[in-house]
Amino acid sequence: MKNIYNNEKRLLHGGDYNPDQWLDYPDILKDDLRLMKLANVNTMTVGIFAWSALEPTEGNYNFEWLDKIIDDVYNQGGRVILATPSGARPAWLSEKYPEVLRTNDRREKMLHGGRHNHCFSSPIYREKTQKMNYKLAERYGNHPALIMWHVSNEYSGDCHCELCQENFRDWLKNKYKTIENVNKAWWGPFWSHTYTDWSQIESPSSIGENAVHGLNLDWKRFVTDQTIDFYENEAKPLRELTPNVPITTNFMADTDDLIPFQSLNYEKFSKHVDILSWDCYPAWHNDWETTKDLATKVGFINDLYRSLKQQPFLIMECTPSGVNWHNVNKAKRPGMHTLASMQLLAHGSDSVLYFQWRKSRGSSEKFHGAVVDHDNSEENRVFKEVSQVGEILDKIKEIKGSMKQSKVAIIYDWENDWALKDAQGFGKESRRYPQTLQSHYKYFWDKNISVDVVTPQQDLSKYSLVVAPMMYMMTEETMDRFRDYVKNGGVLVGSYLSGLVNETDLTYLGGWPKTLQEIYGIDVKEIDTLYPKDRNSIKFGNESFEVVDYCTIIEAKEAEVLAKYEEDFYKNTPAITKNNLEKGKAYFIGARTNQEFLSKFYDKIVKDLDINEVEDFISECGISIQIRENEDAKYYFVMNFTEEEKNIEIKGSYIDLILGKEAEILNIMKPYGVYVLKKNK
Ligand code: GLA
Ligand code: ZN
Description:
Bound molecules: alpha-D-galactopyranose, zinc ion
Mean pLDDT: 97
Shape: globular
Structural class: alpha/beta
CATH class of the largest domain: Alpha Beta
Distance between the termini: 25 Å
Number of helices: 18
CATH superfamily of the largest domain: Glycosidases
Strand content: 15-25%
């Protein structure tokens, strides 16, 4: 890690600050500085969408306002994360150079407006953004306030213009070398889809080609590579002129379900950022799930983003209260902002940064939660809670840089997710790959067992247990890695819908792959897809558990059968199996089970592996305990994700960092209550 940010000993607290919207309101800008002190914030992210303020007309730059803001923040002890403004551009740029505008999959040229809508190939946009970034790096690279670069904002989407098509063809040439290889990889003769020339290949389109899965996959891979390439072009001046200032760009999650962001492969992208940061917006207090259930999803996604780089990350954006883009934008109840912030830290964040510092006066985000409301008042409820979070962050700042040490890993694979969503067959609505991972994760969250969510390419050897359900698309390399992991003593859990296609979405021939048969000691004969109202059940021990959606018909070979189906034409055949392979074990879950089953199933595995990280704590359901640690100490975040008081008993002696004294042995935790407890090693 580069040093400028490392030198910063505080947890970052602050967020997106848009003074460029308020340049005509000098009193507000002055007030911002006063309120920043009262809110206990220390870091402002500036310049994100400020291009038209920085370069009002082509080649005429205006940095004076930014100079003043950065100086002012610094002079009162603050730091700055400086953004490059490419996420939105001035009208003059689109007007003069229409090539910078995106073309959609229907080959319609987009108009100027909105944001995040530029072509990633456009040489002119690349030149203009890079030029701007040289200016920023030259002017602010040595400013003592600058601790990090925030390149652009929430990269997403694709462009189907002619420049992008050409780049896609070049990308394919580089990958496949010959058109014959493309035809083989994509199963060309199907529906006469054999290409005879590179020029015939076009990106997928809703009015054109969309049935060739290999093409769809390669397009998504290309879009990730092209986005990263654009980002690298932007980052070049920053790397050149400010090698000690780390670079990030803010990642996202998808939907209210907080599943991993779907349109870019963040595993690849994460290798290009010095520190990973992301924007976390759970729909707290919604009417379809409990606070606790939503909290597990927040845990899952944070564990994934932390594990990508195996280092602490940053929350670049979260809201102090509601957002403006959920279906219903509910305010955070008192205490929730503190609890939600602590949860982010508990899973490895070294910051709580907000969108946004101040609510804007006009346009679409004027009612989005902010530290400072239109009332401009430090007496505001939300403001006060932010200020309180700032106090807590100061008290627990020694956690900065500490990590989680997990013995359990759950595998998530972006390309598998893409391929499985695209597959025709199975159940349209019932695939739910990331949601299935969330339900496995839930078991461990409930038991206060730390989890890393990793990709199949990451090192598995440090984990005692690897959970890898629904690996529909699986390369032979991944199968080999899984086999080696088990042979060397690992415990692996796999499931239905695994090992069906290779990396270009061609099915494996000759039955279920031999390596998987060796790992699990079974052969997969058929996969039965159930209607939503269909039910089957399995007998596990003396208990019967309902299964839905998918039932694998299995022939057990070396494996021991742990559960059998109770209904249908495969009644009494294996549903859950266990195989001993050299020093390790591999379990196979053939059907989609409910949470009660997973709980029984994992209880036994966890007991065998003797994983208990919280033996000093006896806590009620709804309390989550997450641990971070460094060389000197372990930090226990104890969090009540319910609307009720909960009891917790603590054995041993712990320092309560928030209260600054020894923790009590018996505690009643109030709704949304939090402790951060320290134990020296
Ligand atoms: C995203 C963007 C911000 C803002 C927020 C609103 O995360 O990066 O600019 O629009 O959403 O929640
Ligand atoms: Zn384009």
